[in-house]
C-alpha cells in the first residue's frame, strides 16, 4: 500500500471531506468541515485542516485550529471546545501520516 500524501485542506475539499466524514464509522458531527467555520467565526481561531490522499481519494482527515491565547500561547488543536475530534483515517498508516504532519506544523 502506498503511503498517503498529506496536505492542507481548503474550501475546494469541502464536499469530498464531508462525504468522507459521513461514510466513516468513527466520525462525529464535529468532524464536518463546517465546524472549522463555526470556530473561526465564533472564536476567531484560524482553521488549519489536514487531508490525506491516496490515489487522489481522501483516506483521512484531521480538523485542526490554530488557537492563540494570552494565557497559554499559540497551539494547534483539533476542534477546541468540541466533545469529539482528532484524526479519522482508513488505516494506521494514514493516522500516523496525519499525526506526523500536524506535529511538524505545530
Report the order of strands and helices.
EHHEEEEEEH
Shape: globular
Number of helices: 3
Number of separate strands: 7
C-alpha termini separation:
28 Å
What is the gyration radius calculated from CA atoms?
13 Å
Strand order, biggest sheet?
A: 1-3-4-7
Q: Which stretches are poorly predicted, pLDDT < 50 over at least 5 residues?
A: none
General description of the model:
- With 106 residues, the chain is α+β, with helices and mostly antiparallel strands.
- Helix content is 32%, strand content 27%.
- It contains three helices and seven strands.
- A four-stranded antiparallel sheet has the order 1-3-4-7, sandwiched between helices. Strands 2-5-6 form a three-stranded antiparallel sheet, covered by helices on one side.
- A hairpin with a 2-residue loop joins strand 3 (50-54) and strand 4.
- It is globular, with a radius of gyration of 13 Å.
- The termini are far apart.
Set down the secondary structure blueprint:
Blueprint: E1 5-8, H1 14-23, H2 34-43, E2 46-47, E3 50-54, E4 57-62, E5 65-69, E6 73-77, E7 88-89, H3 92-105
In short:
By secondary structure, the chain is an alpha+beta fold. It has three helices and seven strands, in the order βααββββββα.
List descriptors:
3 helices, single chain, globular, four-stranded antiparallel β-sheet, three-stranded antiparallel β-sheet, about 110 residues, 7 strands, alpha+beta
